[in-house]
Design brief:
By secondary structure, the chain is mainly beta. The protein has six helices and 44 strands. The chain has four domains: 162 residues, no CATH class; 166 residues, no CATH class; 102 residues, no CATH class; 119 residues, Immunoglobulin-like (Sandwich). The chain has a ten-stranded mixed beta sheet, with helices on one face. Strands 35, 36, 37, 39 and 42 form a five-stranded mixed beta sheet that branches. The structure holds [4Cu:2S] cluster (CUK) and dinuclear copper ion. The site of dinuclear copper ion has 8 residues, from loops.
């Protein structure tokens, strides 16, 4: 088949799937509902007052946020703002959180986030942090799984499109990011686009993570040939020193119209020995290069973020670092690149390929030792496909995207075009079960599925097309997830549930690893915010030139002070509101008429600041927005603004 007929086939496949699958059945429901086992309802029923078994931590795609969903119920428990401003709680609007969204381009209050990575110890979930990528303005964020808040965001220089991220090493030493768009390095940006082959470079960022605090830093960047990095996984066990990236556009075309890219029969998986890279760094092979990027950190002690613009990074040039990088040929536009729980097998998923190639880490080691190469690509050795291949799964389905593992020696792969999940045995390379998804599944998530210890039990499919699964809501429908029971021989559909944004990847983790550590309050005596009022006696109004600082307290059910006079036109007013409560789940809100930002939602023991520039003379009301007590409605006040 030539490329046109493959792509044509894919397109026809999509249409066929959409047409066949989207016919509602005669009961008015969606297709597939008749397949439900009678006990499905019981399996997903979480009785009132009881808790879910797993946290499902889901990327929000183009909403730039993270959803926390309970499994098996599919209930949304929380939406955590990461890269997007959130008027609901003032994230990105309050003076304290605005610096979180600072970048080398200025304030960027949105991103497109695809991939979640949960921290691991020995490649097993440890329940400390979640990491997520900003695809558009390249960033990686770290979210605390104690506070469920974004604690840190680091920008990635020399990167265009941070899709291949954040994938983490076995002991969370690094979050790793490969650039999707090769770009000219920072210092010589003004070059013709047609000079791609000469001037464009790929970069892989190694973002170090502090063992105790989680604090990130860009330890170094690897310069690579100008290809597109798509997805990646760290090795584990025997392969823990390695990282594997899927790549596309190895034609190095500057336009990806089909004639340019996807010409080749095979693209590559790039194997990176990151321990070697560390050795080269220690030997002084790194070079400092100018690069501008923001590093933003939120502190729970001062309840504020700071943003620092960094100006250089350390880079490693593979030309000076032999035996560090190898290319493995992989059929047709590989997307997912996943490593099994033992660390022995690396699964590639060529979107336009008719097989799933499975590579063997042992064979790769042998091929490297024997130099079984098939030439080189831009100076990097290309290993012989057959020498590294464990085997191919034949005719598994159409359009393989992503693979997770069930911990019983099997893999489950999502197929976008044929719209199904397929379970296959890793050793034998045999398909053992398949089940349809509604419709066109992207990522999938098995609890612990990418780790050395899959918790198994369920798989969730995150579907790209929803069609008739829910009541129609106009041209746009909720994105859809589906929960399947994988505990038996046959995968069984249990539940459909809507999600927010466009979920791409998700990870699921036993609730027991997180719930006991969850933060309930911030201790007021530890509040080190410079404008905190730690009791009503400390409440005051202080003028500094044309700035008016209101040190305000909130406690059920009043603000102190609640009548503020002496503000003049031309003043800038800062309401520093400290929530004096020391009780779980009692936030107070704060809003003022005409404010050009949003509200504040202040957690117990915390101080947050709303900036307000009065626009007219008169008396302006303010109030608490969160129903906090029987006298919540009375939690209000006034600010008087006089002429200048
Ligand atoms: S990608 Cu979304 S289906 Cu951005 Cu991980 Cu594969
Ligand atoms: Cu405080 Cu409502």
């Amino acid at each position: 088949m030539n490329l046109k007929s493959i792509i044509g086939g894919v397109a026809v496949g999509i249409i066929a799937v959409a047409q066949i699958s989207c016919k509602p059945n005669n009961k008015g429901g969606a297709s597939g509902s008749s397949e439900l086992a009678g006990d499905a309802a019981q399996k997903v029923y979480v009785a009132p007052g009881t808790h879910d078994e797993f946290y499902n931590i889901v990327s929000g795609g183009f909403n730039g946020q993270i959803s926390i969903i309970g499994l098996p119920s599919g209930r949304t428990l929380r939406v955590i703002p990461v890269f997007s401003q959130s008027p609901e709680n003032g994230y990105g609007f309050s003076e304290e959180t605005k610096p979180m969204l600072n970048t080398s381009h200025g304030f960027v209050p949105w991103d497109d986030s695809h991939h979640i990575a949960l921290s691991t110890t020995n490649s097993i979930h440890d329940g400390r942090w979640a990491f997520i990528n900003g695809n558009n303005t390249p960033r990686i964020a770290r979210i605390s799984l104690k506070t469920f808040r974004t604690e840190e965001i680091i920008e990635l220089p020399n990167s265009g499109g941070n899709h291949s991220s954040p994938f983490i090493t076995a002991n969370t030493e690094y979050a790793v990011a490969g650039t999707r768009f090769s770009v000219p390095p920072d210092d010589k940006a003004d070059v013709p686009i047609s000079s791609f082959k000469k001037n464009f470079k790929g970069y892989i960022s190694f973002v170090s993570i502090d063992k105790n605090t989680g604090r990130m830093g860009i330890k170094f960047q690897l310069k690579t040939p100008g290809v597109s990095f798509d997805l990646a996984r760290a090795g584990k066990g025997k392969s823990a020193d390695w990282f594997f990236f899927s790549t596309y556009n190895t034609e190095q075309a500057n336009s990806l119209l089909e004639v340019n890219a996807s010409q080749k029969d095979k693209d590559f998986i790039l194997a990176v020995n990151w321990k070697k890279a560390e050795q080269y760094l220690a030997q002084g092979k790194g070079k400092k290069e100018a690069a501008k990027y923001a590093h933003n950190v939120y502190s729970d002690k001062v309840h504020s973020a700071t943003s620092t613009i960094m100006t250089e990074v350390m880079t490693l040039d593979p030309k000076e670092c032999p035996d560090m990088l190898y290319f493995i040929p992989c059929p047709k536009s590989p997307h997912g690149c996943d490593v099994d729980p033992t660390g022995q097998y690396i699964v590639g998923s060529g979107k336009l390929a008719a097989v799933i190639p499975v590579f063997s880490f042992d064979k790769m080691q042998k091929a490297i030792a024997a130099k079984t190469f098939d030439g080189n690509f831009d100076g990097i050795p290309v290993l012989k496909y057959d020498a590294v291949l464990h085997g191919e799964v034949q005719k598994p389905g159409l359009g393989p995207l992503h693979t997770e593992f069930d911990g019983k020696g099997n893999a489950i792969t999502s197929f976008f075009v044929s719209s199904e999940l397929v379970r296959w045995n890793i050793e034998k390379l045999e398909v053992i079960d398949r089940v349809p998804t509604y419709y066109s599944v992207g990522h999938l998530s098995i609890p612990g599925g990418p780790t050395a210890k899959p918790w198994g039990k369920y798989v969730v499919a995150y579907n790209k097309i929803t069609k008739d699964r829910y009541l129609p809501t106009g041209p746009e429908l909720a994105q859809s997830a589906q929960l399947y029971d994988i505990s038996g021989d046959k995968m069984k559909l249990l539940l459909d549930f809507p999600t927010t944004g466009e979920p791409h990847y998700a990870e699921s983790i036993p609730a027991s690893l997180i719930e006991k550590n969850s933060t309930k309050i911030f201790k007021i005596e530890e509040n080190a915010h410079p404008y905190a009022a730690k009791g009503e006696k400390e409440a005051k109004v202080v003028r500094k030139g044309n700035e008016v600082h209101v040190y305000m307290t909130a406690i059920r059910s009043h603000f102190t002070p609640d009548n503020i006079e002496g503000v003049k036109m031309g003043d800038v007013v800062y309401f520093h509101v400290t929530n004096l409560e020391q009780d779980w789940d009692v936030p107070h809100g704060f809003a003022i008429r005409g404010a050009l930002n949003a509200e504040l939602l202040i957690m117990p023991g915390e101080t947050q600041t709303l900036k307000w520039i009065p626009t007219k003379v008169g008396v302006t009301p303010m109030y608490c927005t969160d129903f906090c007590s029987a006298l919540h409605q009375e939690m209000q006040g006034y600010v008087r603004v006089s002429p200048a």
